[in-house]
Amino acid sequence: MLPRVALNLTDGEQIIFQGHPSWRAILGFYLKGLVIAIILGVIAKLVGSTSDVFIVVIVVLAVTVAVGFLKRWATTYTITSRRLNIKRGIISREIQETRLERVQDVNYSQSVYQRIMQIGDVDFNTAASGGDYDFIFYGVGNPEDVVQRVDRATGANAAGSHGLGEPQSPGI
């Protein structure tokens, strides 16, 4: 488990969800690195010695694992009782943030691969959605749980929150 990222919380604000893309989300990246390592190993064997093959494969695999880990570690998704936050980067930083009350819809999608891996992408449609303001948590484990947490935080499941679904008395 990667450590929680510090977030300047306001009075009464609580963290509902905080996480990184699942390690399963970057397996495809690791598989591509393995294929590249094998291809470069074959090329090294054709032009060099067996020891060159071993060195090339080990270096490519080490770089792939390091880059994959850093990509995952450098992305943090946070949902608090008041806002959504996406932080990306280590040296340079990109931060996306919006107030939770601006969230209009929360959807998640899973490709066949993602369903097998039990990951998915959670898409938050906000009042400012469009182009650069899309909030998407890519590759999160158990995306349905993230959606349910946001629903609870926004009161989306509360009957009558918008005048609809008001409970009826049994006699009417």
Description:
The protein is of the alpha+beta class and about 170 residues long. It has 2 domains: about 80 residues, PH-domain like (Roll); about 45 residues. It is about 35% helix and about 25% strand. The chain is built from 4 helices and 7 strands, in the order E-H-H-E-E-E-E-H-E-E-H. Strand 6 and strand 7 form a beta hairpin. Helix 1 runs antiparallel to helix 2. The longest helix has 24 residues. The C terminus is likely disordered.
Q: Which labels suit this protein?
A:
172 residues, alpha+beta, PH-domain like, 2 domains, 4-stranded antiparallel sheet, 3-stranded antiparallel sheet, 4 helices, 7 strands, elongated, disordered C terminus
Describe the protein's topology.
Blueprint: E1 15-19, H1 27-47, H2 50-73, E2 75-80, E3 83-88, E4 94-99, E5 103-109, H3 112-117, E6 119-126, E7 135-141, H4 143-154
Antiparallel strand pairs: 1-2, 2-3, 3-4, 5-6, 6-7
